[in-house]
């Protein structure tokens, strides 16, 4: 909460929380023009209060192409893993509140009210940055979730694979929408779980690595060395990518062995490099002498 | 195109392309029941054709909670990086076409027509899997883009940071919505670009690594060794995460030096492990003897 507009927005948030927000819900295109509804509204509802909204926030809210219901799609994404956590809708107030509170906030179409993800579950999504798309009608809430996002307890709301449904004879257990790095992490974790099962035949390479620390560590050292050799010998790019894939895979087996999540590693990197939005700028200013 | 429903859906796609799809646009909730519109429709429009839609695809399409316009939000996500590429809307036909063609397809609300991303630019999004959310009213198209997704030529449509707009005195150049790994990659690439600039003061650590191959390689080997030690000495999890972060960062500087993208590394891993949807199952079946 170290940026000036946060404090300036608090007053608007207080007004909203007293259930007055409906007065300016959909105030953009609905009125045929993009006005300054907060200001006019405040002066009517609370004549004694000196409401001052940062004009930049107003401009920003005005720049969003709200639909004819005053809404835009809002997608919450995990800042470290890139996982799409959930998708909802935002109106002016939801976006303003997300910016001011740094907690992902949506407009519930069924309940006709604002809601901050986590207000009942405590699983807030802590905003690192917010992005608009090229058309300014779609929003990304880039944030760090405090816990599972889905009301079902699932990490994200996307755990129903269409292709699983279409190809499996029997309905399969849920499978999260995982991108490559996390699909690999999940495979390693699966192989680890399978170690407990009695198996016939040759164990997979991942299982052999999980079972034999010496083998795993010698492979990690060997692959790191081979990655270095791609630079030292000026090998081609596809070789660099392939050797890096080897390093990453073997190091991830070690993470799996120790039950350390890739997400935790990325959180370490994010905090070290602080590349997310204004945090980055603040850290850049204060750490100039010790920059990476 | 090795799954049976693909071929079975082709006939439906042909019908749609002859501009008949409006007859069953919004056929879900609109009719007060969830029927089998493709079949009835086909028998009326093309009585001679033996239309046979995989009942599983029909069921799947029926299971989506289309809104009162017959639409659901569809988010295209890069399967390797997790980047949200774009967001549009899908109707029944758009989802059916996405499943059958394996190219991300949307319904254009402004043009009232289906459109496959890439049909004019050739920058298709090649679908690896499709996910529904817990409410079945939001869809992820998980795919590999052939090129930039945005019509502006940007990699994704999300390049306007709200926090940049609010905090910068001057409007800043566009900045993609990057998650931690790619924010770090971008920082390294920035440091590399800055090497050309005349600088006073001590160069950053990243720049020193970029300038000195011996230093970079000795650090990669050293950090890999330290990661192994966390296993060998049974050090705590936070130490494992921290050492892995060191390995990843230094290896990424090497990637930056050689201009190899993390995305390319992840593509290698995806293809090796083939964890995306049905591909994974097919590879699992055929590679049982040499499984990872």
From TrEMBL, chains A, B:
The chain positions of domain Phosphoribosyl-AMP cyclohydrolase read 86-159
Q: Where is the signal peptide?
A: none
Q: Name one Pfam family in it.
A: PRA-CH
Task: State any GO BP term from the record.
Answer: L-histidine biosynthetic process
Query: Which chemical reaction does it catalyze?
Result: 1-(5-phospho-beta-D-ribosyl)-5'-AMP + H2O = 1-(5-phospho-beta-D-ribosyl)-5-[(5-phospho-beta-D-ribosylamino)methylideneamino]imidazole-4-carboxamide; 1-(5-phospho-beta-D-ribosyl)-ATP + H2O = 1-(5-phospho-beta-D-ribosyl)-5'-AMP + diphosphate + H(+)
Keyword list (alphabetical) reads: Amino-acid biosynthesis, ATP-binding, Histidine biosynthesis, Hydrolase, Multifunctional enzyme, Nucleotide-binding
GO molecular function terms listed in the Swiss-Prot or TrEMBL record: ATP binding; phosphoribosyl-AMP cyclohydrolase activity; phosphoribosyl-ATP diphosphatase activity
Gene3D superfamilies named in the record: MazG-like (1.10.287.1080), Phosphoribosyl-AMP cyclohydrolase (3.10.20.810)
According to UniProt, this protein's pathway is: Amino-acid biosynthesis; L-histidine biosynthesis; L-histidine from 5-phospho-alpha-D-ribose 1-diphosphate: step 2/9; Amino-acid biosynthesis; L-histidine biosynthesis; L-histidine from 5-phospho-alpha-D-ribose 1-diphosphate: step 3/9
Question: What NCBIfam families does the entry give?
Answer: histidine_hisI
- What family is it from? In the N-terminal section; belongs to the PRA-CH family.
Q: What is this protein called?
A: Phosphoribosyl-AMP cyclohydrolase domain-containing protein
- Lineage summary: Eukaryota, Viridiplantae, Streptophyta, Embryophyta, Tracheophyta
């Amino acid at each position: 909460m170290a940026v000036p507009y946060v404090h300036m927005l608090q007053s608007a948030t207080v007004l909203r929380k007293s259930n007055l927000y409906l007065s300016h819900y959909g105030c953009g295109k609905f009125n045929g023009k993009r006005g300054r509804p907060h200001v006019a509204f405040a002066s009517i509802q609370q004549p004694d209060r000196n409401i001052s909204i940062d004009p930049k926030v107003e401009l920003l809210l005005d720049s969003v192409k709200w639909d004819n219901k005053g809404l835009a799609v809002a997608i919450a994404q995990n800042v470290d893993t890139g996982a799409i956590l959930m998708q909802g809708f935002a109106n002016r107030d939801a976006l303003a509140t997300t910016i001011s509170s740094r907690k992902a906030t949506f407009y519930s179409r069924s309940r006709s009210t604002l809601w901050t993800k986590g207000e009942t579950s405590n699983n807030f999504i802590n905003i690192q940055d917010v992005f608009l798309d090229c058309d300014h009608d779609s929003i990304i809430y880039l944030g760090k979730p405090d816990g599972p996002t889905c009301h079902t307890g699932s990490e994200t709301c996307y755990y129903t694979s269409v292709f699983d449904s279409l190809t499996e004879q029997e309905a399969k257990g849920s499978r999260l929408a995982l991108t490559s790095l996390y699909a690999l992490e999940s495979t390693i974790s699966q192989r680890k779980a399978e170690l407990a099962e009695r198996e016939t035949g040759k164990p997979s390479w991942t299982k052999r690595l999980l079972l034999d620390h010496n083998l795993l560590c010698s492979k990690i050292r060997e692959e790191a060395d081979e990655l270095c050799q791609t630079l030292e010998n000026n090998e081609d790019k596809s070789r660099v990518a392939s050797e890096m894939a080897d390093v990453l895979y073997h190091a991830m087996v070690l993470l799996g062995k120790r039950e350390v999540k890739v997400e935790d590693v990325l959180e370490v990197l994010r905090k070290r490099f602080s590349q997310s939005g204004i945090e980055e700028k603040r850290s850049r200013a204060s750490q100039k002498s010790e920059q990476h």
